[in-house]
Amino acid sequence: xxxxxxxxxxxxxxxxxxxxxxxxxxMQTLINGGVVHGGFGGPVxxxxxxxxxxxxxxxxxxxxxxxxxxxxxxxxxxxxxGLVTEHRVPDPDFGEPDEDLFGLVGxxxxxxxxxxxxxxxxxxxxxxxxxxxxxxxxxxxxxxxSSSSDPFFVIEPGISLELxxxxxxxxxxxxxxxxxSGIELAGFRDKDFTGPNANINLKFGWFR
Length: 208
Fold this sequence. Notes:
The chain is mainly beta. It has a single domain, classed as Beta Barrel (Porin), CATH 2.40.160. It has one helix at about 1-25, and strands at about 35-50, 55-70, 75-85, 100-115, 120-140, 150-165, 170-180, 185, 190, 195-205. The strands form two sheets. The protein has an eight-stranded antiparallel β-barrel. A two-stranded antiparallel sheet has the order 8-9. It is elongated, with a radius of gyration of 25 Å.
């Protein structure tokens, strides 16, 4: 029995090898050739319209970077951002009378980025964030933060121009579009946070 199995295995191996040799075919994969690994992290600032007023978001992101032989790169990581400008709650009946209340908002998630020919001095990157966030209400001095909060879903694609400043530092500026779903608190709605934004990203790390 064991002898028969061994003969069958040898026959299968020889026939499979002969087939690939005759056809000259190789397995196709998504990523071919050598891959060089690196990584980066750094601060991000975003500018947009929040509830019909100028909004600024500050945060950061980091990623593991895989650079292919042709200079194209794929980065996988995450990031998070918080609203630093003050935006009064639209609902005048929320909270105590004559109390100044503002939205407290943050979000973050998983980020995938593609970099086109990263070896060039100036090149293009495209990325997408998929994640979640939360919104609550605070007073002017952050002394009182509402216990009620509203979670929401967010997806944010974007495209940027990136400059290689040094071998370990890059800076990019670009545009994105944030889409939120699930915001309904103190008069705030999804439309107050959904829309285009401009951003500046500093990257410090190991680029190959």
